[in-house]
TrEMBL record, chains A, B:
It comes from the Eukaryota. It is found in: Membrane. This is Uncharacterized protein. It is a multi-pass membrane protein. Keywords: Calcium, Ion channel, Ion transport, Membrane, Transmembrane, Transmembrane helix, Transport. Pfam families: PHM7_cyt, RSN1_7TM, RSN1_TM. Residues 653-690 are annotated as: Disordered. Residues 662-690 have a biased composition (Polar residues). PANTHER family: PROBABLE MEMBRANE PROTEIN DUF221-RELATED, RE44586P. The keyword Cell membrane does not apply. It comes from Hibiscus sabdariffa. Belongs to the CSC1 (TC 1.A.17) family.
């Protein structure tokens, strides 16, 4: 195992690199030319406008105020200043609650570390086991459980500590669950009217030989929710159309690129060298002409495809968004079973429109089940066979082995030198180093946004002509919950596992949580743009994963103590996971409903309030376009945008008059269907209808 | 291990005792005097009347038709003749589905046994491992997996068989789940109007300083289910009253006993010897006078207690039965969350009134959680420490050890003699013998109903005066689902575990399933009276337990094969439980909703039909008394019965007029509450109201 000075050296290296990142960030962020990379959120909010527009030429791109370089860490207190309610308002509840995970880490591990260093470290330190063992050891080993002789009564300390840590973790988890649930409920209650409050996603609509999907949906809900049904919107399979639109956009970028090139050097028309396969052969053509023609071709294809989707019943998926007259009606429909067969007419809350993954909307139930099976089996075998590389890494993690396996590293290792000869696999040191590289330097690198920075300047140079282009080139990105959360969970696992065994790891993890909290708070305030708002629906998963980490730590401790001939502690230790699982079940019953259900009382309250405030509300008009496939909104954006907006504003009565419902194959008697939307959009873009 | 002839001897003994039970049953059941013990179900249905009423004196008590003794097994085909739909009509769906568990056993194990005996037994038999092992062995051992040498390729047979058995079991389970779900849905759809279809049980009503429970319930549901709420009934804590009523009944029995005694011997008044503590001291008193006085005292106590319950708000529990105008409204309320806090205003389907356990109705959520924790911990430690007696029994199950531990058994063992010296613990033979004792002879004894037979004749002799008394002395009992189902599960477990290891066990289990099916079908048709009807709501548990047995058998086989040096089969075997768990999840998603939810479509269909058929239905009157505590119904049964019935028949309008709601402390403005019921009953028993 590494000595304290080795770890100190590694810490110095990582702290230096983290500092380097912060310094680079501090310099880059105050350059006006990078303003859109480091403050995109404010641009999106409309609270900041381009610094390039005014001032002297040089100061447009470079910051010449040298005093601002001196205060290069002042973004940190700034990031912490915005109070939480304002943060929720600014960046959404999801982001605010995501930050609370880091805070939870601090809340759990700071008292645990304090207790471990005041109680457990002295107990470990005042033994001589390692001195008598003949093994090479260091000061760090003396701090760990390895320094206690087998069968010693001192293991009672570790047992009591395990209980204390479990209790504290559970207590913090419970408190946090309570706070987050209250935040969610308050957020939902104070929310403005949103389409998803009134809408339910219905899947697996059974095929019917006599009726179209739209008619079937209408009849089913008119019969089974007669007092509440308002309207519905069927789901189209517009995947091909999306592809075409995406391609058109790409080609448009190339067109702009060549047009810019031509403008800068008008003497020479840019040529496309080879138009054949992979640009390997074919004739040279004029680039601007070529891409203009391509765009025309794609525009034709797009309108043909749109025609096809509208007229072909096969492009309608067995899914629909059904809207209700009240939140109460939607809450009832989303939480109940509609039909005798539980695999058809599946209802669930509609996610908010931005949160939809349209491509996957129509996967049949049986495919979903099979996919889940495949994922479960793959997960099992991945975990099972992942032990092989882990075993290899573990054997490598022994410095001597590294020398043997990778002899070319020998000179380097003979330098980082005292560690050579250590015979104990340096697992705890491995994780300490890992924490410093991934959790300290890695988090510091996050703030630099190297990839967006480069991409922005490339786009800015080649594509941007107008202020609108520049806005599009700005890529704020979103908070990477899918990658960030598992990283946090790893640190929770490490912290809980090593809390009793090698408490020296804890300070490093605390630094990770603190640093990440500041960095991500800064990024959420200044950079990321939230893609959608789930109102912290992810919290039950976060909670469950910390519980799993806790149970893993308890089982590992049980295994460790049984090898240490402290087997009499087993019954006491086995109670811990039982109690933890019970605690989880308690929390699930007590708090989880706030995240998966929508109480009728709340729905009724909002409905009543709204009826009193806006008795003449045109809800149908509000909901009509909400769940339209985004591709119908983006098609021919330039020429339909205005017409669309106009169309959206008008009450539904006019809309149903304007388009001939009789000519569409899925005409509906009650006028509740919004099926003829693409038709309507198309129509409204024509001059004689507008 | 025991030889074939040992097992043959045990089988002969058990078959003989089963036969003896059947013979005794055949003789006893055709005696007219036992008619009410062996055919109570028909008396309850009113389809059979006492044979004592007519015929000669002797033939009233004894069957003198000797030809009927010859056909002593003819009840067996008779029990099988009633078709299933008629059985459901006769004894309810619960009983019919319970019988299907035995049929499922036959369906699973007959093909498995066939396959095992044609494929696996020959593979086991044609080895010589045991002959070369130097161990004492018998023919039965040669049929089992023990006869295959370690690491042999023949284990592939067992692996393929394990897959085949799992596949067949899962297939049968899936088919059965489908059938039972369809039966349940059909049963529910064709059911008559029942109070529980319209009613929801609400628990954990939060305390309110300003309103009584009844008012609170009414306001809450008027606000949150304005179009559907009909009425409600609060729940009283009448446990003390129940106790008093029970005591009165007991003392009434004693009174009748002494009155009968006096009538038979009018010259001597029966005396109670000692009235003091445990009858040890005190004065002798006239028994009839003493018990008459006691009954009067209790009657007074009962009416005081009833008064107290009606007037004391503390005797109202925070629970209520809320009824809705439509099944749709009840289905919605039962399946949704009412309030932001998921631990208050808990709603669930009301069980049918007979299925209620009134004493437990008001346990708060937190106590429920704690009770579950205690049960979980107790269950864990019971299982954990149960290994100790199991280990003792296992060591005893070795014949040599029995001789050593219990030397006084030696002479007996030296006789049951060939088995002595067997060194392999006879586990499979143990279970074969167990099956024969518990599953063959035990089931045969069930049909004799020895305890009810004796009890009936004792009561008949000492207490019965009128035909009504005789009816009360008749105790049909109910099908013992709580004891019967675990017994079946044990045989499922044994069958699945030994199917691959020692298939010789299978025929014994098949005989158990067949015999039980006939016996319990007979008992359900002729004896048991169903207490309530859950419409086969227990099936998901039955399914889950067989799945658990299947997984246990797969894990045990994996362990066994790894000790047999056939470790290469582990990855293939580990796939089995994964697939089984997935199968279970699939079944859960596909079929379980039929058992726990009530689809809105079905509810709407029944509502619409009913509205068309009976447009003037007085639903409030129908529901008013349904969920009254049974003790209010049974108090002063003799004098209120008629008045009660009369009262129940009248429309609710009259009832609310007749009782002064203003004088009750929980008067309700909307007249929806049925809270004043005890009051009303009391009132209607008075002559000036009747």
């Amino acid at each position: 195992m590494a000595t304290l000075s080795d770890i100190g050296l590694a810490a110095a290296i990582n702290i230096l690199s983290a500092f380097a990142f912060f310094l680079a960030f501090a310099i880059l962020r105050i350059q006006p030319v990078n303003d859109r990379v480091y403050f995109p959120k404010w641009y999106i909010k409309g609270l900041r406008c381009s610094p390039l527009a005014n001032g002297a030429f040089a100061s447009k791109f470079l910051n010449l105020d040298f005093r601002s370089y001196a205060r290069f860490l002042n973004w940190m207190p700034a990031a912490l200043q915005m109070p939480e309610p304002e943060l929720i308002d600014h960046a959404g509840l999801d982001s605010a609650v995501y930050l609370r995970i880091y805070l939870l880490g601090l809340k759990i591990f700071v008292p645990i570390a304090f207790l471990a260093f005041t109680v457990m470290v002295p107990v470990n330190w005042t033994n001589n086991t390692l001195e008598h063992s003949g093994l090479t050891f260091s000061e760090i080993d003396k701090l760990s459980i390895s320094n206690i002789p087998n069968g010693s009564d001192r293991y009672w300390t570790h047992l009591v500590m395990a209980y204390a840590f479990t209790f504290w973790t559970c207590y913090s988890l419970k408190q946090e669950y309570e706070i987050v649930a209250a935040m969610r409920l308050h957020f939902l209650a104070s929310e403005h009217r949103r389409p998803d409050q009134f809408t339910v996603l219905v899947r697996n609509i059974p095929p019917d030989p006599d009726e179209s999907v739209s008619e079937l949906v209408e009849h089913f809900f008119l019969v089974n929710h007669p007092d509440h049904y308002l309207s519905h919107q069927v789901v189209y399979n517009a995947n091909k159309l999306s592809g075409l639109v995406k391609e058109k956009k790409k080609i448009q970028n190339w067109l702009v690129y060549y047009q810019n090139k031509y403008e800068r050097n008008p003497s020479k028309r840019p040529l496309l060298k080879k138009t054949g396969f992979l640009g390997l052969w074919g004739d040279s053509v004029d680039a601007v002409d070529f891409y203009t023609a391509e765009i025309e071709r794609l525009s034709r294809d797009i309108s043909t495809e749109r025609e096809k989707i509208t007229n072909n019943p096969k492009s309608i998926m067995p899914a629909a968004f059904v809207s209700f007259k009240t939140r109460w009606g939607a809450a009832v429909c989303a939480q109940t079973q509609q039909c005798r067969n539980p695999t058809i007419w599946l209802t669930e809350w509609a996610p908010e429109p931005r949160d939809l993954y349209w491509e996957n909307l129509a996967i049949p139930f049986v495919f979903l089940t099979i996919r889940r099976l495949i994922v479960a089996v793959a997960f099992f075998f991945l975990t099972f066979f992942f032990m092989v590389p882990i075993a290899i890494v573990q054997s490598l993690a022994n410095v001597e082995s590294i020398e043997k396996t990778l002899p070319f590293l020998k000179p380097i290792i003979e330098v980082i030198p005292k560690t050579i000869g250590a015979s104990i696999p340096m697992k705890a040191t491995f994780f300490i180093t890992y924490t410093m590289v991934d959790g300290w330097a890695g988090v510091a690198a996050e703030i630099l946004r190297l990839k967006p920075l480069i991409m922005y300047h490339l786009k800015n140079f080649f594509l941007v002509k107008t202020e609108k282009d520049r806005e599009e080139a700005m890529d704020p990105g979103t908070i990477g919950f899918n990658t960030g959360e598992p990283q946090i969970q790893l640190y929770f696992l490490l912290g809980l596992v090593y809390a009793v065994v090698t408490p020296i790891l804890l300070p490093f993890i605390i630094v990770f949580f603190g640093l990440s909290y500041v960095v991500f708070r800064h990024q959420i305030i200044n950079v990321y743009n939230q893609e959608y708002e789930s109102a912290a629906a992810f919290w039950p998963d976060v909670h469950l994963r910390i519980i799993v980490a806790l149970i893993v730590s308890q089982l590992l401790l049980m295994g460790l103590l049984s090898t240490k001939e402290a087997a009499s502690s087993t019954p006491l230790l086995i109670t811990l996971p039982v109690l933890t699982i019970w605690f989880h079940r308690f929390c699930k019953e007590r708090y989880e409903p706030a995240f998966v259900r929508y109480p009728l009382q709340e729905a009724m309250m909002k409905d009543t309030l709204e009826r009193a405030r806006e008795p003449n509300l045109n809800l149908k008009g509000f909901l009509q376009n909400a769940y339209m496939h985004p591709v119908f909104k983006s098609v021919d954006e330039d020429d339909t945008d205005v017409a669309m907006e106009e169309w959206e504003m008008e009450p539904s009565l006019v809309a149903t008059k304007r388009t001939s419902k009789r000519s569409t194959p899925f005409s509906s008697k009650h006028g509740g269907s919004s099926l003829s939307l693409p038709e309507a959009n198309k129509g409204s873009s024509k001059p004689d209808n507008a």
